[in-house]
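Researcher: Predict the fold of Phosphate transporter.
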Amino acid sequence: MSLNEQDGKGVNQWKTLDRDLKRLGRLEHGAQHVSRSLVAPGIALAFIGLAGLVAALLMGAGPGQGVVVVGAAIGAYMALNIGANDVANNMGPAVGSKALPMLGALVIAAVFETSGALLAGGDVVKTVATGIVDPLALQDPTKYIWVMMAASLAAALWLNLATWIGAPVSTTHSIVGGVVGAGAMAAGFHAIDWTMIFRIAASWVIAPVLGGVIAAAFLAVIRRQMLDVEERIQAARRWVPVWNGIMAGAFGAYILYKGLKHVFPIPLNVSCLLGVGFGVACWLISIPLIRRQSEGLENRKKSVKTLFSFPLIAAAALLSFAHGANDVANAVGPLAAIVHTVEVGSISSSVGLPLWVLLVGAMGISFGLLLFGPRLIKLVGSEITKLNTVRAFCVALSAAITVIVASWLGLPVSSTHIAVGGIFGVGFYREFHAQRRAARPGALQKGKPVPPEERKRRLLVRRAHILQVAAAWVVTVPFSAVLAIGIYLLLTLVA
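Model: Structure tokens for Phosphate transporter follow.
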């Protein structure tokens, strides 16, 4: 018998040891949590270092090797941030509607982003300075290299910051801002095409409004056709094939005009005509498939929504393919320009895209979305407004059609702005529809009656995200420009 037991105190003689073990357990748990959070940045740094190493091996020990190595590292960093930020636009609606789990969305996005970059990324890209800075004002190859490097690094840093604060922004506008800042420092403000900058600023309003209006209109039509009728399954058998045809036609034209423009350019009118053919074929094929898929389904809205799952997944995959084909140039276009300038010693508006440069961009986008993409996917898919498969389908279809309409009008819109605008559009339509239904005489309310002032408070779109996203869009170009100015000045001082 212990002394404590003899004294009748009953004190646990292992109390101090238990307390120390608990502290060690908490310390170990905290260390594991920190180590897990460092895995993704560690892999990203390893990829950036590998890109620099590949550039060093391929360029050899010739003049300008160090510049290309640094440019490759910056290009890899830019590609990682494009994957982390932009993929949310394509996969967010599909994940938010639960048509795809997060892991499935990441795998599909990685496959189609990489395929789009490698198959349709193009052998030749126009440098990002084309159309923004007067080429005659940048005749010094050294200045040109510093402009490309500063613009790319500034855009990458801004994308990294935007991803960290949870704001989906335009990759293209980020790189444009970088070129404006660095180009103005190198060639003067008179060399900047301010008309192009004004058009980009106008797209901050045009793109999201256009995308939101189209998405809301699609949702209103689908509700009237299938969700707010008595015989929902019968209506779905008639109208879902039609919407599948519209989706196939829109994405057919979108892929032909935007996704494959680097492989074989097709005029917009020809792309639209071919898209109509794809749409008719898909409509005819979908009729028996939807009839078979709808057999045995209950006459409920939920049953109709399940019929949109596969078209939504296909739309997300096609958006990822087109994004990889288009935005790989934003990631490695400056790098390709640097490599060309170092090898040839002259400036060109269009440069070749070496295979290793294309691989840096393709793999960087895929690594970025796999390592850092889930955060913004969750925000876009579920934190702005609640999405189901029908609403997400309307957002995806709106993105493709809005790009086509904007291209026809000659407007430089951003797919990021369109997709996010589409999500806000369906959210605001939900609010409008819910308020109108509640205001009907004799309308039934679930649960306890809700007074009008309480209904106004229970909004279906989170207003805080409007201010956050809009502010990020507005500051993208000026912030990237200011950052590029600082980086350009630093490079010129160091060099």
